C-alpha cells in the first residue's frame, strides 16, 4: 500500500521525524527509484527504493552557523571541552 513520502522516510529510519523528512525532501536530497522528489505528499510503495543523499549529521541548523563562525574567526577548538 502506498504511503506519503515523509511518512515513509520516518518509518524506514531515514529521517528522525516527519518534519525532518519534509525538510530533507524540500532540500532536494530525496530520490525515489533514482528520481528526485520534492513533494512530501508524494505517494511511494513499499517496493520502491527511497534514498537520502548527503543527509545532515547535525541535530539543528544552528550547528552550521557555529561551524561557519569558528572558521570565520579562526577559533581553535581542538582539545577543548
UniProtKB/TrEMBL annotation:
PROSITE patterns: S4 (PS50889)
GO terms of molecular function: methyltransferase activity; RNA binding
InterPro entries xrefs: S4_RNA-bd, S4_RNA-bd_sf, TlyA
Range of residues in the leader sequence: none
UniProt entry tagged with the keyword RNA-binding: yes
Record keywords: RNA-binding
Pfam families, per database record: S4
Protein name: S4 domain protein
Protein's organism: Leifsonia aquatica ATCC 14665
